[in-house]
Amino acid sequence: MIIDTLAHMLENEAAYGAEIQKGLQFLRDTDFSKQAAGRHDVNEDMFYFINEYETKDAGGCFWEAHRVNLDLHYILEGTERIGYAAIEQLTVRDEYSAEKDAVFFTGPVESAVTAGPGALVVCYPQDGHMTGIEAGSRQAVRKVVLKIRIAG
Question: How far is CA 123 from the centre of its chain?
């Protein structure tokens, strides 16, 4: 998992692989302000969701990880905590679904980062992540989850 800001990652763009570089450039060059919530296709290797939700207690959230797509969580509005655990530390709840490119887990939140506007959290296939956790109080979050194909 990488935790930074879009601005910092763009300053060090050459430090990341070509796929992430393309994703960073896309995030930088796209105006998301008037885009509706839901799925938006970019090309055969990249698509994104505009997610809008209210944060909640971790007990109402879930762990997930992906195999085919890398996740770039870019916070536009609001603040949330994003839990992290190596998938080996979690217990599989729902086996991998190729259709959803997701496996769901259970387990305690032992590590989490607070992410506000401008924050960028990159989740690799080995990174179990739990989003939408309230950071002190419930609040509305609007973010982009950019999916970049890295396998199969």
Answer: 6
Dump pLDDT digits (tens) for 131-151.
999 999 999 999 999 999 998
Q: What is the number of alpha carbons within 13 Å of residue 47 lying toward its C-beta?
A: 8
- What size, in residues, is the chain? 152
Beta bridge partners of 121: 3, 73
Across the chain, mean pLDDT equals 96
For residues 118-152, one letter each, b for 16 or more C-beta atoms within 10 angstroms of the residue's C-beta and e for the rest, the string is ebbbbbebebbbbbbbbbeeeeebbbbbbbbebee
How open is the CA angle 152-144-100, to the nearest 5 degrees?
35
In angstroms, the CA 71 to CA 66 distance is 8
